TrEMBL record:
Organism in which the protein naturally occurs: Pseudomonas taeanensis MS-3
Identification of the protein by name: Beta-lactamase
Alphabetized Pfam families for the sequence: Beta-lactamase
Segments forming domain Beta-lactamase-related: 40-371
InterPro entries: AmpC-like, Beta-lactam-related, Beta-lactam/transpept-like
Record-linked PANTHER family: BETA-LACTAMASE-RELATED, D-ALANYL-D-ALANINE-CARBOXYPEPTIDASE/ENDOPEPTIDASE AMPH
Length: 398
């Protein structure tokens, strides 16, 4: 049992387990037909038919900037309602993208600098190890600080074993005091390379609150959601109009000892981890968010900040590190994306900057193999490349 728990816990919230199928043949088919509906049906409907997930919503921003939404299955077993582009989902670690945006905006206006260290950012007298003192704002934002995903303590292990049977959050003891105390004895690894860290983003949120004088929820609304017109995106989900009709979370690959398809409890996050994974949103808002990164907004400072978050700081073929975003080079294409796994939900948001397309995939079950978004973006990219040299129907027009 202990080995099982440690193995599963080490993966929880992983950046990527995406397995993408060969796309040339499918891209050719899409290029010839332009039938986006048929392509998405073939990817999504089997997940419903096999009961892999109760429901799934796929949103596509095409190369002309138009939104398309495709819903399958149900929001929950009791109502039987079909999800659509306006259905709220918990999106887990997609929350980090918004925290990264807030950090970039505070850097843009001179409140913070990417090179600022925790020794400078936290109050004087904070108990910090020598290694913790040297962690920079940019390292927190790019998962390169050396901080672990979460401290692996006996209490964490006990809560995780409980989670496997109940679905209850195993992060509920990671409050502000707990994580700040952890920094007093922190020793970084010899090699600093991208290592996904939930507590790193918790500390980033804490720093943003300290230096802005506002809570992360307030910062989200004032600095990102309101300027971009995201009226259905909030860390305080109960405030959103669609919350009672939201998609309900279900067991999938996890929790291991709850039968797939059974409801699991929503997670409530502590003060310092609220900005890390507590966000609710819908496919419509997330495509608007993606469009702002691809096409820009009406605000020059906002656009500079959003582009800053997409800049790769650690180059690798797969999982190259930007601010909250990561990038994969897949053949001739580069996909920049985020994934979220929380409670009974899985989420994906991917951008193809060369073709100005985006895909969002929201599921109301916890599944590691969240590969539909990557696959679809690659097929669309291949089809668009083929259409440049032939007179073929535009994708999404049929």
């Amino acid at each position: 049992m202990t080995l099982l728990a440690l193995s599963a816990l080490s993966a929880c919230g992983t950046l990527s387990r995406l397995q993408v199928d060969p796309t040339d043949q499918q891209a050719q088919r899409l290029a010839r037909s332009g039938d986006l509906q048929a392509e998405i049906d073939a990817l999504a409907q089997p997940l419903i038919d096999s009961r892999h997930t109760p429901g799934i919503v796929i949103g596509v921003l095409d190369a002309d900037g138009k939104k398309h939404f495709f819903g399958y299955g149900v929001t929950d077993q009791l109502t039987g309602s079909k999800p659509d582009g306006s259905t709220l989902f918990a999106v887990g670690s997609l929350s980090k993208g918004f925290v990264g945006d807030i950090a970039a905006l505070l850097v843009q206006d001179g409140t913070l600098r990417w090179g600022d260290t925790l020794e400078q950012l936290l109050p004087a007298g904070s108990a910090l190890s020598d290694d913790a003192k040297q962690i920079t704002l940019l390292q927190l934002a790019t998962h390169t600080s050396g901080l672990p995903r979460q401290p692996m303590t006996p209490q964490t292990l006990r809560y995780f074993i409980e989670y496997l049977f109940t679905g209850n959050s195993f992060y509920r003891h990671f409050d502000r005091r707990y994580l700040l105390d952890y920094l007093a004895d922190f020793e970084r690894p010899e090699r600093l390379e991208p290592q996904y860290s939930n507590i790193g983003y918790g500390l980033l949120s804490h720093v943003l609150e300290l230096h802005s004088g506002e809570k992360i929820d307030e910062l989200l609304q004032a600095r990102v959601a309101a300027p971009l017109g995201l009226s259905n995106t909030d860390y305080l989900a109960q405030h959103l109009p669609g919350y009672p009709q939201r998609a309900r979370g279900h067991a999938g690959d996890q929790p291991k000892f709850i039968r797939r398809g059974q409801p699991v409890p929503d997670w409530q996050f502590t003060d310092i981890l609220h900005g890390t994974a507590a966000l609710y949103s819908n496919a419509d808002d997330l495509l608007s968010y993606a469009a702002a990164h691809l096409y820009g907004s009406a605000d020059a400072k906002m656009d500079a900040a959003l582009q800053d978050t997409l800049q790769v700081r650690v180059k690798r073929q797969k999982e190259a590190a930007a601010v909250a975003w990561i990038a994969d080079d897949l053949g001739a294409q580069t996909i920049t994306y985020q994934v979220g796994l929380v409670a009974g939900y899985s989420s994906y948001l991917g951008l193809d900057s060369r073709h100005n397309t985006a895909v969002v995939v929201l599921q109301n079950s916890f599944n590691w193999d969240n590969d539909v978004g990557h696959t679809l973006l690659l097929r669309m990219a291949g089809a668009l490349d083929m259409q440049r040299s032939a007179s073929l129907p535009a994708i999404g027009q049929k």
